[in-house]
Fold this protein.
Amino acid sequence: MSFDGIPVYKKKTYKKSAELSGAAPKKHDFIVVGSGPIGLAAALAMARKGHKVIIVTAFDFVPAGSKGICYSKEALDIFDQLGVGERIVDKGVIWNVGKVFWGESTDPVYQFDMLPVKDQKNPGFVNIQQYYVEDYLVDALEKMDNVDIRWGHKVSGIDTRDDGATLTITTRDGDYQLDTDYVIACDGSKSTIRDLMGLDFAGRIFEDSFLIADVKFKQSRPSERWFWFDPPFNQGRTALLHKQPDDIWRLDFQLGWEVDREEAIKPENVAPFIKGLLGEDTEYEEDWMSIYTFQCRRMARFVHGRVIFAGDAAHQVSPFGARGANSGLPDIQNLCWKLDLILRGQAPESLLESYNIERTQGADENILNSTRSTDFITPKSETSTIFRDAVLEMAGEHEFARPFVNSGRLSAPTPYHISPLSTPDGTEFAQGPKPGHVCVDAPIVQDGKDGWLLESLGNEFTLLYFGDTPPQTKIKTLVLPNTGLASDRYGANTSYLVRPDNIVAARWAHANTQNANTQDVERAYKRALGEEA
Amino acid sequence: MTNQQTLMTKPNMPDHDDIYEALIDAHDGLSLQQSMKLNAKLILLLANHIGCKDILLEAVEQAKP
């Protein structure tokens, strides 16, 4: 089954909107546009905070095709906050180790571990087909009575004003309008809203193309990310092998720029690559084939009045590094607590600007890493190729050369070096996440039960306190002892003010005083709400 | 790693003629491409030995045409 050439994983039901049946038009707090993982996560985050949610999406199905398969620890922590993390981890293939091979050698020239800090709830990475992630998010949304997913409702117009926007929605039964205070635009790299508003999306195009061959076969191989430079089955180019659930494997082959896409994707032309990698005798079934090229770019701003862009609509990277959905999800986590508090009147509207400041920094770091990986994988000059080969030739013998090998720097949280919400440190810290950095997880015991630090932080402002005499404050306080792994990771006799997105807003060391100062905590809290500069 | 935090541009070693000769001799019989790779390896080895981003970036600037 397919729709406009897009294969369908699960059909959804289009319903005629009440607006087209004469219902009185209502003004909405916000509308989510797009039903990819980012739009669905935005909807679920807001719905779980008790808001009425409308999602409009041109699709009336969950698309098939594995697409984005790697979900980072940070993404899994966010899925945990949305209540779908454990389902994703249970279905997914857990992996932490990546290996890089060069030429015919079966010994890796380089390997890395995506979870250098052990004893955290979630693994470094989980591989799972994107349609499972979307399906689980839709499942969670469909169980809520404050959610209205409008399948087959396409945005065709937007009229913006200072205090909101009017969306024109096109359906098979005709057009209607939605009047809203805010728009959360998660409508992907070809964002209709971005185009309708005539907004920029500048960046760099890379002259290379890649073949994805997702194939099903039964063979026992480790669930590691294997990457080849110049393998015998794709000489002078690269290849990737990565496991997904259901005995499906992601194979990815660099093809070069001059390629006939229609020819390249024919089974008889794909087969030599697959058999070259897996062995002549391997029996496999094709699951999903695709040829992709890519760009690294972002919008200059993610907030345009009351229209907020997130995910691929706002920024796009090469796939090397799994920084697509894994950076869109932190967008949503960053945005949703702010929009929630603004809608409740508990934070000023100006708090939204911090989303723009923080997440454009995140996008820049992702684009930087992704561009560097691409320059290593697809060298842009003869000299660049020579340096790349020099690194690979030396990496086997010399340990020093291995960290130069760049087959994709895999998605890691991007700290906010500049944020109006962060309070700078007043004292020196030997360890622990700095203001603007995401909290590290650790096993903890609460009320006699084993649990995890990130779970206990939950989804609200928390004062994380290590010691015996926490300050009196209206902010939720999590008191932990000065012993154990959590204290090792954060430091004994410290306090951390943690935002709902698990980012440190401020921290204090109080070894020589009885308490973290209540006034300091309250001041940092106000600052993190955008109330004080 | 050296303690020096800025790029040394005054003479900093003896035996200049020996070192120069060794650098040139290493390229004997190599094609231009092989030579370029040898140079790339040398740069990477020395960069790691120097181990200081500021000094290396300054050297890159000084070397630019």
Q: What stands out?
A: The longest strand of chain A covers residues 174-185. The mean pLDDT of chain A is 94. The interface with chain B takes residues 382-383, 386-387, 389-391, 393-394, 398, 400-401, 404 of chain A (CB under 8 Å). The radius of gyration of chain A is 24 Å.
